[in-house]
Design a protein that fits this description.
The complex is a heterodimer of chains A (509) and B (431). By secondary structure, chain A is of the alpha/beta class. By secondary structure, chain B is mainly alpha-helical. Chain B is 65% helix and 3% strand. Chain B has a two-stranded antiparallel sheet. The longest helix of chain B is centred in the N-terminal third of the chain and has 27 residues. In chain B, 44% of the residues are buried. Classes of the chains: A alpha/beta (509), B mainly alpha (431). At the A-B interface, helix 2, helix 3, strand 8, strand 13 and strand 14 of A face helix 1, helix 11 and helix 12 of B.
């Protein structure tokens, strides 16, 4: 029996901050309802209330016209709501069958697990919904796409009538995204309603029946899937957005950075970067595309001297820097925007002012012997805050209390305040609002135009296409091909999924 | 100038990685040291005749036998030399075959060491090598109880450093209960209750108030040490009162007829107290509980990914409470060993750091009750050996007394990096 889900005036406050403000939504039986909004717009808060993970401050949820209250996820599961979380709720060291049965175990005697029954159950379920997985495989050994199928199966095993998919495409290859959309359509055929949360315009238009847009905790409108991307983007951000980065053709110069045969072995003995060779020239943006976990992180670490390559040579302006550590890399003129800014990009408890000089504190500009030149540090901060439009209460505010976009601007401002030969930017706009994305992209392009060699690593194809002058595709630790940015999306998707190019050896340009 | 690396069929670049180099260097140096040590032992022995008995002591009916240990020593040296040769050409097999190889080298070293210790004895009587296994099982018993308590707690995501504290409380109250009830078995009940009491404190502060679990464990040990010392000091010297407080009955040995007659291991496994038999059952019980039951699956999920458990309706902190309390019962039984299970009267610091060794056994046994049991047996063996070698004057007594702890440190350091604790171990969870 399909279920109708209504949300009326749902509000959630965290202290003085209102994450959700009187949200009204209706999910009709058997529809795919897209929830579109920027990071931090309040989509996840709303869904966590729907799934019993958060208590609403106000408002009500109705299932088939009956008001319901959820004290825990089990209450939500009981009325037929299932959720596929953005960060998978799977135990990596358990098998697929164990993960699916967790909480509703298959038993042979009271309290005694029956793994055969569980495997049989998962097998039947995957037959019924056409979701292929091996019940006895360890979850951590599965590719991300298959892990997501396990999450969906887990939700369906609880007889879910309404399935919430929270940013399900963030971790998938373009091919896996297509597969997921097929799965969504066939689930809809079988009568399951789907709430599909995303910030990617292309996807909502491809699969949605109806689109609701959330901005700053409020539903600002609904749109049919026929709406244009520009219209949807404007609703989402609240103003007109440039979806394309304005940039002139590159004025490519000399080779600045050259990598030859770089191989990195991780501590567990797996080769994560395999014989990678490429060159980056002054004044161009080299995009490195690939699904997360295909060696990009380790390759970048090798470039910056955070790990030493086990084989191969990295040259900067002809000089071998493969044995340089991070400090020498900074002095060499390599700038770095890390993929996880809160982990590697700033020190949250330090002020904006201090974070802006983390790389330069020991230079004569900001210190005199062991003492810091506090006045110069303050002046530098004031200057950067204006230049990079960092929205902060003051220069002494801790960075952890800024929004994601402004935190990233602090990192970008710091890295751009040294003369750079090479800029390595990994996921430079992850978790950043659309306004800041525009700004950061513009700054990256202007850095390129100053003659810096820029290397962008991103799992978001949109970002790769927007910025790159050349695109190298990484798969399984190798650069499988280097292509021009006018390649078709499907073709680059195939490369990202490991489809072998015709001439695997000619990867360097 | 191109640094072309050959790529094999499996898509692996032909690079000799540092892990492999490190492994070879490590094996060559270890096997080299073993070989040198064995040669040194061999060259220092004049008379290879040593005496031994299969019993726990030399008695009239079963006099010590004599054996020429020279061939054993030579075999050991050959084994070590072969291993060194294999390591030098980097051909030491991995997996089960490799493990067997390490075991052989270990046995060769151990036998060489023992032979050196017992050979060339001066004096009227020769001290005989006695069967070390009964002692091993006895001394491992509290360690095993402590280690399975640790496995239970940590698998569910609660770090329990306080095993030592649970031992002390268990030991004290086992003595009191046994003295008062005039029954050694009641002592076990007292031990369980005392262990659970510390577990309640651990649960309240770690789960309810989310105190840092390592700091909390240390504090609980300090509390247990102070409390048992204080209570001990309050026991009057008047024998009429003292006999009701700290003069416990001790558990009797219960030989299992038939099985006890198996040579060497029969007396070790089947001539023990009821506490040891409870230990055997506990290892089986906890292993089945963790890996074959609904509760075990849930407990392990809570220790690995509590949020995932929460989203399928599992009450994370309820499961953790259950694991902590059950662990407390086992740790309390382990504590009871130090009084009603062995010497009787409670003395200050009766558990003498055994709780920390149990903790080491948890890590070395990879958070698996069976693995932790094997690690505990290894430590028990070291303690037994130490006690025997104390009769000989080959090694300074101070060094000998420190050796089990030294071996603990080496064993734990050796397993770091190769073992993976439960992912959410020690992380508080609030839904």
């Amino acid at each position: 029996m399909p279920v109708k889900l209504e949300i009326k005036g749902l509000t959630k406050k965290f202290g003085s901050f209102t994450a959700n403000d009187h949200i009204d939504l209706t999910i009709e039986p058997g529809e795919i309802h897209c929830l579109l909004g920027e990071n931090g717009a309040g989509k996840s808060t709303l869904m966590n209330m729907l799934y019993g993970l958060l208590d609403p401050t106000e408002g009500e949820i109705l299932v088939d016209g009956e008001p319901v209250t959820f004290h825990s996820p089990s209450d939500a599961i009981a009325v037929g709501i299932g959720m596929v979380h953005q960060h998978f709720m799977l135990v990596p060291v358990f098998t697929v069958a164990e993960n699916v049965m967790l909480g509703r175990e298959q038993t042979s005697a009271p309290g005694v697990l029956s793994r055969t029954k569980a495997s049989e159950f998962v097998h039947q379920l995957s037959e019924r919904y056409g979701l292929q997985v091996d019940p006895s495989a360890l979850v951590e050994s599965l590719p991300v796409g298959a892990q997501q199928r396990v999450e969906i199966l887990k939700a369906l095993s609880n007889e879910a009538k309404v399935l919430i998919l929270d940013e399900p495409t963030a971790v998938l290859t373009p091919q896996e995204i297509d597969e997921l959309m097929d799965i969504m359509r066939s689930l809809k055929e079988l009568g399951t309603s789907i709430i599909f949360i995303t910030h990617k315009l292309r996807e909502v238009r491809a699969v949605g029946d109806r689109i609701s847009v959330i901005r700053r905790g409020k539903v600002v409108g609904t749109a049919p899937p026929t709406a244009t991307e520009a219209e949807l983007a404007e609703m989402m951000v609240g103003r007109e957005v440039k979806l394309k980065v304005d940039k002139a053709p590159p004025k490519t110069g000399e080779v600045v950075l050259s990598v030859e045969g770089c191989t990195v072995v991780d501590p567990r003995g797996h080769q994560v970067v395999k014989d990678v060779s490429f060159e980056a020239r002054a004044g161009e943006v080299l995009g490195i595309a690939g699904v997360q976990g295909n060696g990009q992180t380790e390759l970048i670490k090798a470039l910056l001297g955070l790990v030493r390559p086990d084989a191969g040579v990295i040259r900067l302006d002809g000089e071998d820097i493969s044995r340089h550590g991070p400090r020498e890399s900074l002095d060499d003129g390599i700038g770095y925007i890390p993929e996880d800014r809160s982990h590697d990009g700033y020190i949250g408890a330090f002020s904006v002012r201090e974070n802006l000089i983390l790389d330069l504190y020991r230079t004569d500009r900001f210190s005199r012997g062991p003492a810091l030149r506090l006045d110069d540090i303050a002046a530098n901060a004031d200057h950067r805050i204006v230049e990079f439009d960092i929205r902060t209460e003051s220069a002494s505010t801790p960075v952890s209390s800024l929004s994601g976009g402004n935190q990233q601007k602090v990192v970008v401002a710091r890295e751009f305040s040294r003369p750079l030969k090479v800029l390595v930017a990994s996921q430079p706009t992850r978790g950043v609002d659309v306004g800041s994305i525009e700004f950061i992209h513009k700054r990256i392009i202007s850095e390129r135009d100053k003659g810096t060699a820029v290397i962008i690593v991103s799992t978001e194809l949109d970002e790769i296409f927007a910025l790159s002058d050349r695109i190298a595709v990484m798969y399984d630790g190798r650069i499988v091909d280097t292509v021009s940015p006018d390649i078709r999306r499907e073709d680059i998707g195939l490369l990202m999924a490991g489809a072998t190019p015709d001439k695997p050896e000619e990867v360097t340009v | 100038m191109a640094v072309a690396n050959a790529i094999s069929d499996e898509g692996i670049v032909d690079v000799r990685d540092r892990t492999d180099i490190r492994r070879q260097a490590k094996l060559v140096s270890i096997f080299g040291l073993v070989l040198l040590a064995l040669i040194a032992f061999y060259s220092r022995i004049d008379d290879f005749h040593i005496v031994y008995t299969l019993g726990e002591r030399v008695i009239k009916d079963d006099p010590a036998k004599e054996i020429n240990a020279q061939p054993i020593m030579i075999v050991g040296i050959v084994v070590a030399a072969l291993a060194l040769l294999l390591a030098a050409v980097n051909r030491v097999p991995k997996g089960a075959l490799g493990a067997l190889g390490y075991l052989l080298v270990g046995v060769a070293f151990f036998s060489g060491f023992i032979i050196w210790c017992y050979a060339d004895q001066s004096g009227a009587f020769s001290v005989a090598i006695i069967n070390p296994f009964p002692g091993t099982i006895r001394l491992a018993t509290p360690l095993i109880f402590g280690a399975i308590a640790g496995c239970l707690c940590e698998r569910a995501g609660v770090i329990n450093i306080a095993i030592e504290g649970q031992f002390l409380m268990g030991a004290f109250f086992a003595a009191v209960a046994s003295s008062m009830a005039y029954s050694a078995e009641m002592g076990l009940v007292g031990g369980i209750l005392a262990g659970v009491a510390i577990a309640v404190l651990l649960g309240v502060f770690a789960l309810r108030y989310q105190v840092n679990q390592v700091v909390l464990g240390v504090v609980l040990i300090a509390l247990a040490t102070g409390l048992t010392d204080f209570l001990l000091s309050q026991v009057p010297d008047d024998p009429d009162i003292k006999k009701y407080l700290n003069e416990p009955l001790i558990l009797e040995r219960v030989p299992i007829s038939g099985l006890v007659n198996i040579p060497v291991i029969g007396p070790a496994l089947f001539n023990q107290t009821i506490l040891v038999y409870i230990m055997y059952a506990s290892v089986v019980f906890v292993t089945l509980l963790l890996f074959q039951t609904t509760w075990g699956l849930r407990a392990r999920s809570v220790g690995e990914h509590p949020k995932a458990a929460d989203t399928v309706g599992i009450k994370v902190n309820r499961i953790r409470w259950q694991a902590v309390l059950l662990g407390g019962a086992f740790a309390g039984l382990g504590g009871a060993y130090f009084t009603v299970g062995s010497t009787g009267t409670f003395d200050s610091n009766a558990s003498a750091g055994n709780g920390f060794i149990a903790l080491a056994a948890v890590i070395m046994g990879r958070w698996n009750p069976v693995g932790a049991t094997l690690a505990s047996l290894l430590f028990g063996f070291c303690f037994t050996l130490q006690a025997q070698l104390a009769f000989l004057d080959k090694i300074p007594g101070e060094l000998l007394r420190a050796s089990p702890y030294l071996i603990t440190v080496i064993a734990v350091a050796g397993s770091v990096g190769r073992v993976r604790p439960p992912a959410a171990d020690g992380e508080p969870y609030q839904s």
